[in-house]
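PROTOCOL LOG
Step 1. Enter all chains and additional molecules of the complex.
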Amino acid sequence: MLKVGLIGAGTIAGVHAQGWSEIPDTKLAVVFDINKENAEKLAQRFNCVATSDYESIIEDKDIDIIDICTPTTTHKEYVLKSALTKKYIFCEKPIARTVEDAKEMVKKCKEKRVRLMIGHVLRFFQEYAKMKEQIESGVIGKPAVVRTSRCSGFPRAWDNWYADFNLSGGVIDMIIHDFDWLRWCFGDVDRIYAKGLGIKKYNEKNFVDYALVIIRFKNRVIAHVEGSWAEAGGFKTSVEVTGTKGMLNFSSSDSIPIISGIKKGVGNQPGVSIPESPVAESPYTLELRHFVDCINRGKEFLVTADDAVKALEIAIASLESIKTGEVIKL
Amino acid sequence: MIRIAMVSFAHMHAWSYASCLKMLPDVELSGIFDENTTRGRKMSKIFQTKYYSKIDKLLEEDIDAVIVCSENAKHKYHTVLAAKSGKHILCEKPIATTIEDAQEMIDTCKLNKVKLMIAFPCRYGSPTIRVKQMIDAGSIGKIIAIKGTNHGMMPGDWFINRKLSGGGAVIDHTVHVVDLMRWITKKEVKSVYAEIDTLFYKFKIDDSATLSMELEDDIFATLDPSWSRPLKSAPFWGDVSMKFVGTDGTIEMNLFGQKFDLYNNDRIKAEWVYWGDNIDLGLIKSFVNCIKNNSEPEITGYDGLKSLEVALAAYKSAKLLKPVRLPLQAKK
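Step 2. Run joint prediction.
Step 3. Record the structure below.
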């Protein structure tokens, strides 16, 4: 039985708590949040202990896994401390806010022989895994021009931390998912040119961020990544991969198996239309299950710590390009 | 009666423009010139009009205007000849293959007091007109960014002969969407960065690209003009799509999104059948109207030059591996 200490009680922490509850031989033992009330709410839902003292979790010899689900800039402190007490560490993406911090974290974990996995969960999304499988099968030939898109409204989270560009990095924080998936499919990046609001034009009162990033891979693939926190509608993603023999096209809004229309009241009162795309196991649960499985069998994680650093390097280069207007060579 | 002749069927759009001429009650398709005798004769027969093997002979006739659909590099030669004969000109895009040629076309038409209109039919799509209305009305606030695509199938023929085309996918497919961006936002492109390559086919001309642009008023934009649609299996020739992102919302337009799916056992692949308006008809009507009313063409030679400039800047940028500022300096 592996006992889990959850750091943070926000949105993603709730998703992880659900994941832990579905994985046999693991038990969510304690939830930490600097807001004790939030921790208690989550702890109650999943029948575990709440605390506002994170060191007590990290130093608790009974805890095997530390699962970090807090804002990006806090990751480093939790990871470094958990490395010292030799925990298995799962940390949400992005690994850190700067490449220097990320490298220091990875180095410390290697030094202490502590296993660290970062939550680049897109690799566990059924559609993204299937697309990679198809690309690798050669069915579209050699990949050439690629487009990805990830769009939502402005994220609302604890203390509205996303609205602080210095803390979140804006919408680039979200499309690091695509950066990692693209690297997984097409290898290392040669150069990046990005346009976005960036810190100069980011206006936290507008609650809008938007970025269009062009990535040139070492294997010559040209990728275009859209990241949007400017949408009025719900969350949507899309991917297009063109190649010498064909093309693969995915759009989340076209892959909806259930749309329920629920009438409100009687007669012609307007109702709501709710799209749903259920899967047997949530990608977040799959991701945590994989983490536990690799720990138990001593296998390498699908997302290595170095992968997480490289995804962050792309994100930071994008921000740098947005800021300077220059092409950034990696 | 407005009398209009066709100059060359080298570009496949000539077929559609000639068909549009035939649809208009007060317009006559008065003849076809084509260097390619076989093609010219065939088209003259189909469209029931006279074939001219010499452009001079055609231009001696009492016609009001010509539609130039020759290879890109020949637009200037044909346009200048027509202008000097006092004929108005509707010229296929891109206006030319160099800024100097484009400028000479504009200057010659001005000097000879004839109209020069550039064929950007996408402006006449009903979805485009509606989107422009919405943006003009401020429905999504201040424009922050535009994401565009103009994907297509590799057209082959002279399109992949640099001497005749001036370039591959980038010169072919950049100009439509850039023209729409300029027209809808009323802003000019200030700088261009592009990744350009030949990734799909085994020839030297470009077939793959993505452009990034800065427009006036802090708008940024990208455009994918690649010849990336699989030749044998794609259900449609390509697309023209634009997403406008504003402070108060977004508008996504797929110009050819009015379609249904068609499956046929003999044709093997699935197909999309487009049922929206004929955008070329809007273009041709506008050209005829500017002659009738003696008004400025809705799409000018300058518009043609400005979108060509973006394509040329893209090539320059891809070579230099850095953004290129506009306007480009004409070579003297």
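Step 4. Note key features.
The first helix of chain A runs from residue 11 to 22.
Chain A has eleven helices and 15 strands.
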